[in-house]
């Protein structure tokens, strides 16, 4: 497992400029294994982000937990070279991704792009003068969904909404759920359709998923989630549909239509706590579709993929209707599993 994670770090870091990727290559294996993000900001120190905190790349490949003299600083030319590398020297082919703030890379890695927006008729048409890049390293961790599957049991077939803050491991767990369900590791093989709008779950490259999603999984790569869900229902007869970061009006409608065909929905949503989750109007709309019987909350403070609690969707909705002051912390909510 360590060798695989080191390889993923090295593969991802090669996508940025040579001056910085060379320094990153020489980091100790243990550091590479725990790195979640590599952040470049113009004229600022290069950051290595782990679950434990943010570190800076110092002289001789040493890490520093604070700003000290001699840190490796990303220069303007580094950002420009890195941006070209990330686009494989074809910015036009990535234009749609770039205007949405990211570039998907082979292996499922994703680079968040920050710069100056170019507006066209009040809509972002492109981005210029790139000022920062956030390279998120995709981890394929077999068994990441084991605890969740153990605690949910047959309730998974009634739908699951996976909530968590950024970098809490939502995509990693979705990936492993797809692998285990379509591979039959938990009983009967399931026909799984993954709607992978940004290519993070499957890591599809040239039409071939780079991550193992099992033998009975169909991947709709690059499809907007709403379109992909409806297409999967019409053409793939899935038993389970998996997608990440859901919540728009069109996606809620698509989820509801998918439910009416008998498909089980598994999706993720951004939220750092149950309170934050239930304050979002879209969350309540999603839960009211009946597509999600359970809500699992991830605990980013204790590392990616750690489960803070599993809640019954009906109880969360009842509490939301009953009053906004509830702390969502008791068994009255139907909390039936804590890791």
TrEMBL record:
Keywords: ATP-binding, Nucleotide-binding. Transmembrane segments: none annotated. SUPFAM superfamilies: P-loop containing nucleoside triphosphate hydrolases (SSF52540). Residues 156-291 form the AAA+ ATPase domain. One of its GO terms (molecular function) is ATP binding. Gene3D superfamilies: P-loop containing nucleotide triphosphate hydrolases (3.40.50.300). The keyword Nucleotide-binding applies. InterPro entries: AAA+_ATPase, P-loop_NTPase, Spore_III_AA_AAA+_ATPase. PANTHER family: KINASE-RELATED (PTHR20953), P-LOOP CONTAINING NUCLEOSIDE TRIPHOSPHATE HYDROLASES SUPERFAMILY PROTEIN (PTHR20953:SF3). This is AAA+ ATPase domain-containing protein.
